[in-house]
Write a structure and sequence with these properties.
By secondary structure, the protein is α/β, with parallel strands linked by helices. The protein is 28% helix and 25% strand. The model has no long low-confidence stretch (mean pLDDT 96). Bound molecules: S-adenosyl-L-homocysteine (SAH).
């Protein structure tokens, strides 16, 4: 059935999407988004032969574009409804932001490296994706744009960033890989009332650390 709804503009992206489905990703909107996005545009030309393999790849500034399975897994945990306002921390290459745009979310994304912010902006514009991009420290969130339906953190903090919790709508949640450099647990932190949050655990992952402040 999926066969019919997956775009075929980028056959390699479509194959990647189908392979993620076999690995257990079941949200069809996530699968369709992966199938529609040219991942090779988000990485250096020298790495293009690896663009559609299910693995993380290096980008500038010692950072990484996450493994497609991880992007899909985090996107699935968001359970996005159309038009929901989502804040991503860690724009990186911009690939995850493109996935969220494909899923018809209203996307806000923050990156702490100015160079990555600039490159991601160019790539996303070129592909006609228009998330709201910000250069800044994700630990601060975006108080002027809050509250958000969902928050997605794509770098690993050691503790749940308190200011981001406060920028969630009641009933909304945050998907965050929580822990130190040895590895993290994927957590979903849901704001059930003004002051009450619940947590659920969703497996082990490895991300680059979430760091304070900004850099060139
Ligand atoms: N979502 C990205 C993954 C990039 S890796 C993608 O699809 O390519 C994580 C990114 O988080 C890195 O670019 C890193 O610089 C950024 N990051 C780490 N700490 C941050 C912070 N406090 N605020 C904003 N971005 C941060």
């Amino acid at each position: 059935m999926t066969e019919n709804i997956l775009q075929n503009k980028y056959p390699e992206a479509r194959k990647l999407a189908e392979s993620l489905q076999k690995k257990g990703i079941s949200d069809q909107r996530v699968i369709a988004a992966i199938a529609a996005i040219p991942r090779h545009e988000f990485i250096d030309e020298s790495l293009r032969e690896y663009a559609y393999l299910d693995r993380p790849l290096p980008i500038e500034k010692g950072q990484t574009i996450s493994q497609p399975y991880t992007v899909a897994y985090q996107s699935e945990l968001l359970q996005l409804k159309q038009g929901e306002k989502v804040l991503e921390i860690g724009t990186g290459s911009g690939y995850q932001a493109a996935v969220l745009c494909e899923m018809d979310a209203e996307v806000y994304s923050i990156e702490r490296f100015q160079e990555l912010y600039r490159t991601a902006k160019e790539t996303l514009n070129k592909l006609s994706y228009h998330p709201h991009l910000f250069f800044g420290d994700g630990y601060e969130g975006l108080p002027n744009e809050a509250p958000f339906d969902k928050i997605l953190i794509t770098a690993a903090p050691e503790k749940v960033p308190e200011k981001l919790k406060q920028q969630l709508k009641i009933g909304g949640w945050m998907v965050v890989p929580l822990g130190g450099r040895q590895g993290q647990k994927m957590m979903v932190i849901k704001r059930v009332s003004e002051n009450k949050f619940t947590e659920t655990e969703h497996g082990d992952f490895i991300f680059v650390p979430m760091q304070e402040g900004t850099e060139e």
